[in-house]
Design goal:
It holds the Pfam family FA_hydroxylase. The protein has seven helices and no strands. By secondary structure, it is mostly helical. The termini are far apart.
């Protein structure tokens, strides 16, 4: 097999691998120990930027470094191909997530059917939950069906209630006074 076919295959493998990476990081890191950063994405935005945008900048930095290493600094060809795959996923993610779903560039599209509608609905269902517990749909480019996500939201309702009760218990002192 010629080298260029291998590099094309690597590019697409990285692109699809990024969906799994995004799912894992979103579920276990962003809704886990880095909730303090990601939380800004689940609250009303007050300006053009939110703290959560740091994640995109981080991954862009990795992609830029890989491309620069492979193109400018004599690194292996695979480095810029991997960087290009990460960049392509980031671009698709930006268009679908930031532009389509969150209207960050002022583009107000509401798909009526098909893949884009499914993607839109899946991410809106992710945001249907207050807080980090009990959310659904952590990937993005390959969304589950809205019906499946709605069922999962119902199954996770007790988890969300327990999380609310735990937070409510922390807000009050033993004598009933509210903590600030």
């Amino acid at each position: 097999m010629s080298d260029w076919l291998i590099y094309i295959a690597l590019f697409f493998a990285v692109f699809f691998f990024m969906e799994g990476t995004a799912w894992f990081l979103h579920k276990y890191v962003m809704h886990g120990f880095l909730w303090v950063v990601h939380k800004s994405h689940h609250e009303p935005r007050t300006g053009a930027w939110e703290l959560n945008d740091a994640f995109g900048i981080f991954f862009a930095g990795i992609a830029i470094a890989l491309i620069a290493w492979g193109v400018q600094f004599g690194g292996p060809t695979w480095a810029w191909v991997v960087g290009a795959g990460v960049t392509a996923y980031g671009f698709v993610y930006f268009l679908a997530h930031d532009v389509l779903v969150h209207h960050r560039l002022g583009v107000n599209i509401h798909p009526k059917s098909g893949y884009l509608r499914r993607l839109y609905q899946a991410h809106r269902l992710h945001h249907a939950v207050d807080g980090k517990a009990g959310c659904v749909s952590f990937g993005f480019v390959f969304p589950p069906s809205p019906e499946r996500l709605k069922k999962k939201l119902q199954e996770l309702a007790p988890l969300r209630a327990a999380q609310r009760n735990k937070l409510d218990a922390k807000r009050f002192t033993p004598d009933g006074e509210t903590l600030h």
